[in-house]
Amino acid sequence: MADTPLSPAPHSDSEAHRYAHELSRHLRWLDSFTGAALGVLAAASGIYTYLGVRSLLDDSGAWTTFAALSYSLAVSVGIFVFWSYMMRLLPAMRTAASRLGLLMSMALGSLAIIAMSSWLNAAALAGAAAVEQHLAHTVQEYQTALERTHANTIAGQALQRDVARVRDTFDGLSEQEATGDLSGLAGRGAVFRVLTQKSNELQGLEAQIAAQDKAVEEAFANGNAILSRMRALSVEPGAVEGRSVRFSEEAVRLSAIIAGLRQLNVAPLVMRAAADLRDSVVLPDLDASTDAGRNSQQSTIASVLTLLGDRASTLESAAQEVQALPEPAEIEYTALSAADAVIRYAGNFVPSWAGAIAIDLLPAVLVFILMVVQSAIRQAQGAHAPEEHMTVAELRAALAAARDLNIGPDPVPSRPAMPVSATDPPAPVHAASIRPVERAHE
Length: 442
What we know:
442 residues, transmembrane helix, single chain, coiled coil, membrane
């Protein structure tokens, strides 16, 4: 029975084999420059890491430069080795457990790369802008503190009107007493002297408050001038380090002006004066010539003292309202390095952070691409043996390798003699093969 020839593979299998071969060929071509590309990414990350490290180090000597170079070189090597491991090993994993383990390792390594490199890259990319952002933010805080302190001080200066109103009350009463309309005794007697005494105290307080108007306005004008210089320093071109030093000097001056403005607030002074107005009264001797006149003076002075208490309470309430106004928070400018500023104002520099992280974690995308392609190749190849889908070129290469190793083809086995059946016709006999038989002599 003749041997039947092997049937060719189904059309779908041959297409899958060609698809797997094409993907493998693409991967071999891409692998020829993937290492170089990964090295360029690692080197670029190392350069920006070096710049970020130098922004953290104050010294500019040779050892500082060597330390920064060493750190950046270690980062570059670490990034290159880590992603090389991931690109080679993770796509080759075939079980879910091994693939999950390497994915967790890749996540941990990515966090380590962000911690040791990405934030320094962001400092190099946006460090100067972040420091300028810190300067501008500090200027805004100082401006708020200056304006609020000035507003509180102006509210204290407004107490001058309350003091003047109380003084006018006592001036009017003293004029009535001088004509005899208050106690019934015309002249400048004991009641008149009490009223004049308190009127003079209030007049002195009013003059003291008015004398501070000029000092308040000068302090506010000087504070605004310093703020203008600070704003100019925050946007001035040039190295930000030198501008930060001058900015710090201006901040110290402005803090002193704000403290001086706070001291010029007269609300505490008015409260003390109101307490003295009520409690510190020097009562003169009753100078009326008759007992009825002295009794009238005594009752009038008692009424004046009651009025003093009421007016003092009014002044105290007004002064307490001024003192209850919210005070600005204490501001102290603290110079920040580029790296610290980038971290504090990270929300304002999202693109810089994204670029700094992307340059370190971009190879993760290549790892996932390789995983998808390798999975597609394995799925297309299926469980067939490699020789079932070898190309002609691969077959020729295999034969050439076999010849180099002196491996010849297996010898062809000799065909066994076919048994003669009773029904088969006799084989033809050639005449040349018949030998004559000699008859025996009798």
